[in-house]
Amino acid sequence: MARIANYTDLQAAITEWLGRTGDVAMTARADALIQLFEAEFIANPEMRTADMAKRFGVVLTGPSFLLPGDFLEIITAKVLESGQPLTYVSSQNALLMQVNPANAAKHYNIDGPYFTVIPPESAPIDSTVDIAYYGFTPLADSVDGTNWLLTKYPQAYLYGSLMQAQAYIGNPEFVQLWNAGLQAALNNIALSERNRRKGGPLIMAPAIRPQ
Questions:
Q1: How far apart are alpha carbons 164 and 174 in whole angstroms?
Q2: Could you report the per-residue pLDDT of 105-132, keeping only the tens digit for each?
Q3: Which are the contacts of 189, defined by CB distance < 8 A and separation ≥ 6?
Q4: Which of 30, 102, 121, 186 has the fewest CB atoms inside 10 Å of its own CB, making it the most exposed?
């Protein structure tokens, strides 16, 4: 089997390992199998790794702005100029804080794809909100057909996609087989991240863009 270096290679590897090379229907299904694996991967909280850490900065023109399309979870948020950290509050508590516009903006809320400084009446307009977050770019959306996960852990992509394929075909014994391989790969990722964290906290330089 050729090296799995990109999205196209992975699609070919899936049909090859299934013994379905040349099967047009399975080739067409490979996209969905990869997508299903990626959905399960990003839903796993243990897979929040340094490779997924990104930075995003917005100069405020209002209290809310749109989060990046690859956003999964906040790591830290702060007002860059003042150094004021922003802490998360629930939607219910956010509504209570809005009744006192004199409050300094020290919190945030996320509603769908939107990040809102709380209370919004006290949003520091023209200041920069700097966010460190976990994000993930699916292979289908990547510019060059690859991402950090495929580069470092191609076996996770392959085993995860094959597990989805066997579930689709209806072979439960093979689902268990490929799931075992997938879990071993995920355990390696989690172990690598735990070892990294022993070396100290994740530190990232700010990245700023206008809203």
A1: 10
A2: 889 999 999 999 998 888 899 999 999 9
A3: 47, 49, 153, 156
A4: 102
- What one-character DSSP code corresponds to residue 99? T
| Chain position carrying tokens 């022993």 | 198
Query: What residue spans of the chain are helical by DSSP H?
Result: 7-17, 24-43, 91-97, 148-152, 154-169, 172-198
pLDDT of 209 reads 46
**Can you tell me the distance from the alpha carbon of 52 to that of 88, in angstroms, rounded to the nearest whole number?**
20
Name the 3-class secondary structure at 128: strand
| Whole-number Å distance between alpha carbons of 169 and 175 | 10
Q: Is the pLDDT of residue 147 over 70?
A: yes
- H helix count then E strand count, the chain: 6, 9
Determine which of 103-107, 167-171, 182-186 has the lowest per-residue pLDDT on average. 103-107
Q: Where are the domains of the chain?
A: 1-43, 50-135+203-210
Which pTM does this prediction carry? 0.83
Q: What pLDDT score does 202 carry?
A: 54
Q: Is the pLDDT of residue 206 over 90?
A: no
Element (H, E) at 110: strand 107-111
The per-residue b/e assignment along 45-76, b for 16 or more CB within 10 angstroms, e otherwise, is eebbbebbebbbebebeebbbebbebbbebee
How far apart CA 159 and CA 166 sit, in angstroms, is: 10
Instruction: Evaluate whether 130 touches 206 at the Cβ level (below 8 Å).
Output: yes
